[in-house]
Write a structure and sequence with these properties.
Layout (H helix, E strand, L loop, with lengths): L3 E4 L5 E5 L4 H10 L6 E5 L5 H13 L2 E5 L2 E5 L10 H6 L6 H9 L1 E5 L12 H9 L3 E5 L2 E5 L7 E3 L5 H11 L5 E5 L5 H12 L3 E3 L5 E5 L7 E4 L4 H14 L2 E5 L7 H9 L3 E4 L3 E5 L9 E4 L10 H8 L5 E6 L7 H8 L3 E5 L2 E5 L8 E3 L3 H13 L3 E5 L1 H8 L3 H7 L3 E4 L1
Parallel strand pairs: 2-14, 3-13, 9-10, 17-18, 21-22
Antiparallel strand pairs: 1-22, 1-23, 3-5, 4-5, 6-8, 7-8, 10-12, 11-12, 14-16, 15-16, 18-20, 19-20
Helix pairs in contact: 1-2, 1-7, 4-6, 5-6, 6-7, 8-10, 8-12, 10-12, 11-12, 12-13
The structure holds uridine-diphosphate-N-acetylglucosamine.
Length: 417
């Protein structure tokens, strides 16, 4: 079991490059199934979740070559429509293969993904959309079996702008007969990246990034080459690392528009943020002021994936902050661990009240989920003495490509054992 040993108190300074987005690359990988041809994808981050999905693609019959952050997938073989159970249980987002397999083969059997560290993760909205397009779905013995003679384009109104459901429906609709219109679609930048990738292989999709996405089904696809967008959550995490250590950091390879909600909150705390074409500088010369309210919302609101990292910053801020988690039910696992380090936090349901303390102190803590784990690393960077963060491989490596190397480059004292 890998752990980080962090000696806190070093101000982060320097520049660092942000990797490709995990949440973009996963649906893009699923989409490589559809064209039955070659997909070349650049800026692919080396993450545990990416490895797991590549493993799954290989198991069902795709050929994959992954070198120097470029992944080549050939999906010209006939593919197995049974998605093996273990990897799906390990990585919930493999449910995205459902839409892609339906588009390619009209059939898929996948195990039920179940809940995860951040609470129950229902997929009713995914299934509602796919059923509306004509898929027969049987849920039995822990499996979801989907089959359709022909997917047909229809209008689908989502009860909630679910990212995964929007992506699954977009994928399925690429080969449907007629036009599919998704209303109340998720507007996350990763949806736009998926649209660009699919259009690159010959799909006809418009509207991604707005609440109405229109997909005109097509029959012919071609080879595609694509570069994945930068990871806005990795960027936000590094910005928070600068804020919590009073640092001065330049992030390269970012899309500053995707970082508006984080930039705006960190500016409220007193950080000075300067945006350039593909980079951003964050300077935080004094102790942060508390941001009054941080409410997580679908994009372009404040991302739930940044809630824990922002909370780490607020633990040492001057004043009190209120967090309201509206996206996931139980996403405060990091709170108890932050309190072991001296943070003052009270949780009531979906609300957490964080009273800034003078300093955190190093302690032995355990990552309970991916972003919560990153928050503990941030806290360790600012804490007095040594912090040990457990469960690095299990959680933090799922979404950060060797986080310690980036932090070491910026002057942090952190190593993996
Ligand atoms: C994606 C991201 C995840 C991020 C989340 C919200 C990926 C791989 N993961 O997850 O990092 O935290 O968006 O920005 O892109 N819901 C239902 N029924 C459904 C689907 C969702 O009730 O069928 C609920 C969920 O339980 C949750 C909320 O909707 O409370 C948001 O989920 P969703 O947007 O679907 O998140 P994911 O796509 O799973």
């Amino acid at each position: 079991m890998d752990r980080y040993i962090i000696v806190g108190g070093h101000r982060l300074e320097g520049d660092v490059r942000v990797d490709g987005s995990k949440n973009s690359v996963l649906p893009v990988l699923a989409a490589t199934i559809i064209n039955g041809k070659e997909s070349v994808i650049h800026n692919v981050p080396e993450l545990k979740d990416v490895d797991s999905l590549i493993g799954l693609l290989r198991t069902i019959g795709c050929k994959c070559l992954f070198e120097n952050n470029t992944l080549i997938v050939k999906s010209n073989n006939s593919l197995d429509t049974l998605i093996p159970e273990k990897p799906v249980r390990e990585m919930r987002s493999s449910i995205i293969l459902m839409g892609a397999m339906l588009a390619r083969n009209g059939k898929v059997k996948i195990s039920y993904p179940g809940g995860c560290e951040i609470g129950p993760r229902p997929i009713d909205i995914h299934l509602f959309g796919l059923r509306k397009m004509g898929t027969k779905i049987i849920e039995a013995h822990g499996y979801i079996s989907c089959e359709c003679d022909k997917l047909r384009g229809v209008e689908i109104n989502l009860d909630y702008p679910s990212v995964g459901a929007t992506e699954n429906i977009m994928l399925a609709a690429t080969t449907a007969e007629g036009v599919t219109i998704i209303q109340n679609a998720a507007k996350e930048p990763e949806i736009v990246d998926l649209q660009n990738f699919l259009n690159g292989m010959g799909a006809r999709i418009t509207g991604a990034g707005t609440s109405t996405v229109k997909i005109e089904g097509v029959k012919e696809f071609r080879d595609v080459e694509h570069t994945v967008i930068p990871d806005r959550i990795v960027a936000g995490t590094l910005m928070s690392a600068a804020a919590i250590t009073g640092g001065n950091v330049v992030l390269n390879n970012v899309i500053t528009d995707h970082l508006k909600s984080v930039s705006s909150k960190l500016s409220e705390t007193g950080c000075i943020i300067t945006e350039y074409q593909n980079s951003l500088q964050i300077m935080c010369n004094r102790k942060p002021k508390a941001a009054e309210v941080i409410k997580t919302l679908p994009y372009p609101g404040f991302a739930t994936d940044m809630q824990a990292q922002m909370m780490a910053v607020m633990t040492i801020a001057k004043g009190t902050s209120i967090f309201i988690e509206t996206v996931f039910e139980s996403r405060y696992k990091h709170v108890e661990e932050l309190m072991k380090m001296g943070a003052s936090i009270k949780v009531d349901g979906r609300t957490a009240i964080v009273r800034g303390v003078k300093k955190l102190t190093g302690a032995e803590v355990r990552a309970g989920d991916l972003r919560g784990g990153a928050a503990l690393v941030l806290a360790g960077l600012a804490a007095e003495g040594t912090t040990v963060v457990d469960n690095v491989k299990l959680h933090i490596d799922r979404g950060y490509d060797r986080l310690e190397n980036k932090l070491i480059k910026l002057g942090a004292d952190i190593h993996r054992v």
